[in-house]
Amino acid sequence: FLQFVFHTYTTGFTLLNGNGTAKAEEYSVQQKQIFCGLGAISYAACIGALPLVFMNRYTLKSSLTQLVVKKLLPAPLLGLMSAFTVVVVRSPEFENGIEVMDRNGKVVGVSQKAGEKAVKETALSRAVLFGTAFFLPAVLTYFVERAKFAKTPRALASVRMFMITSVLAGMLPVSLSMFPQCGEIKRADLEPEILSSTEETELFYNRGI
C-alpha cells in the first residue's frame, strides 16, 4: 500500500511537470498518460513489494536474507521503478516529440529525439534521487543498529527517519541540477526537417522535472 501511495504521488508530480508539447489527433495525450500512469503505478508497487512477499512466502529468515531484502534491495528497486514510471507517463513526449527553440526562444520544430533526451535525463535524475535517498540511510542505519547507538526500536526508527530526511534534502538539489531545466541538443542530432529550418548549431528544449 505504501509503495502504491509513493508511486502515485511521484507519477502525479511527473504528469504535472512534464513537457506540454506532445499532441496527437487520434487520442487525448492526457488521457493516455493517466491510463499509462495507473498501470505504471500498479506495476511499480507490485515489483517493490515482491522481495518481501517472496521472503515471507518461502520463510527466508536468515540474517543475510533479512539484510538484503529489507535493507539493501528496496533502494535500487525504488530508484529503478521511479525511473520506469517517468518513462511510461511521459512516453508521448518521445513518441510525438517536443518543441525545440533557438537562442531567442523561437520554436523551430517538434523533435522526437529531443523528447527522448528530455525523458531519459529526467528518469535518470529521479532514479538517482530516490535510489540514493533510500540506500544511504539503510546502510547507515544498519551500522547504527550494529553499534547499538539506538537503544530502543523507537529511537532506531527516529534515527532512520532523520537520516532519510537529511539525505533526501541533500539529494534533491543534486538531482535537479544533474541536467539543466533548459536542455541543449546539437543540431546534428535532430531530424532532417528541423535541420532544414534553422542554421543554429545548438537548440534548446524544456526538460520538465
From TrEMBL:
The keyword Metal-binding does not apply. Keywords: Amino-acid transport, Membrane, Mitochondrion, Transmembrane, Transmembrane helix, Transport. Its main location: mitochondrion. GO terms for cellular component: mitochondrial inner membrane. Coiled coil: none annotated. The chain crosses the membrane at residues 40-60, 72-91, 123-144, 156-179. It is found in: Mitochondrion membrane. One of its GO terms (molecular function) is monoatomic ion transmembrane transporter activity. One of its GO terms (biological process) is mitochondrial transmembrane transport. InterPro entries: Mtc. It is a multi-pass membrane protein. Pfam families: SFXNs (PF03820). Belongs to the sideroflexin family. PANTHER family: SIDEROFLEXIN, SIDEROFLEXIN-4. This is SFXN4 protein. It comes from Burhinus bistriatus. The lineage of its organism: Eukaryota, Metazoa, Chordata, Craniata, Vertebrata.
